[in-house]
Write a structure and sequence with these properties.
By secondary structure, this protein is mostly beta strands. 2% of the residues lie in helices and 51% in strands.
């Protein structure tokens, strides 16, 4: 049987080392030897002796839902084998986190991660309840984190001299050491008169970076 479908770049190969790699731009392959974590419903295929267990909704088991309904339910994958993960054909990126690093990521943009990483829910300082309360997940420790994004993300450097303002629906994540606050770019009077444009953004200050997606559409609530 012959087809471009069977091109080498589409064929899954046996993993040689444990851990995650990009299968292609839209999926992550994870060679499991012990335990890893992934968003529920993101496994698209597996082989080997693997168990999938829904993690409880207590502390450490559920990235808390914001008032908008956004959040991330997790599952633990244990055993030995290979699993493939994807979510709505979004682009996948692998981030290596070292000791001393701290990355804040929106729950909707987390695909899977090493069990060696620590994560906790943080309310974005200065954001109040605007933008769904902005409950984001803070990753620390060491290991790999797979991030998903609708389209190709934009990584914008943030400096002490030049803060960056981002739409709360477009932000994917940022360096956790950055200071955050809300910024109103449109006067109340302008809004009453029917002015267009985004009224409130998240302002980030300090030294680091912020990741945004090329879309302002609000993500659909996860189950």
């Amino acid at each position: 049987m012959k087809s471009d479908l069977f091109a080498s770049e589409n064929m899954a190969q046996q993993a040689t080392v444990p851990g995650m790699t990009l299968q292609n731009a839209k999926s992550v392959k994870y060679a499991v030897n012990g335990e890893m974590h992934a968003r529920q419903g993101s496994m698209i295929a597996f082989r080997g002796n693997l168990q999938f267990e829904r993690k409880g909704q207590g502390i450490g088991g559920m990235l808390k839902r914001a008032v908008t309904g956004e959040g991330l339910a997790l599952m633990a994958v244990t055993g030995q084998g290979e699993a493939w993960f994807a979510h709505e054909a979004q682009n996948c990126f692998i981030v290596d986190i070292d000791q001393g690093d701290a990355l804040t990521v929106n729950g909707r943009n987390v695909l899977c991660f090493d069990a060696t990483l620590s994560y906790e829910i943080k309310t974005v300082k200065g954001a109040g309840m605007t933008g769904g309360g902005l409950f984001n997940s803070l990753f620390t420790g060491y290991g790999k984190l797979a991030v998903i994004c609708e389209g190709n993300p934009i990584v914008i450097p943030v400096t002490q001299q030049q803060p960056v303002y981002v739409d709360t629906d477009a932000v994917v994540g940022w360096s956790a050491q950055l200071n955050t606050s809300l910024h109103r770019s449109q006067s109340v009077g302008s809004m009453v008169r029917g002015g267009s444009g985004e009224a409130v953004q998240l302002m980030l200050q300090g030294d680091g970076f912020v990741i945004v997606r090329p879309s302002e559409l609000t993500a659909k609530p996860t189950a």
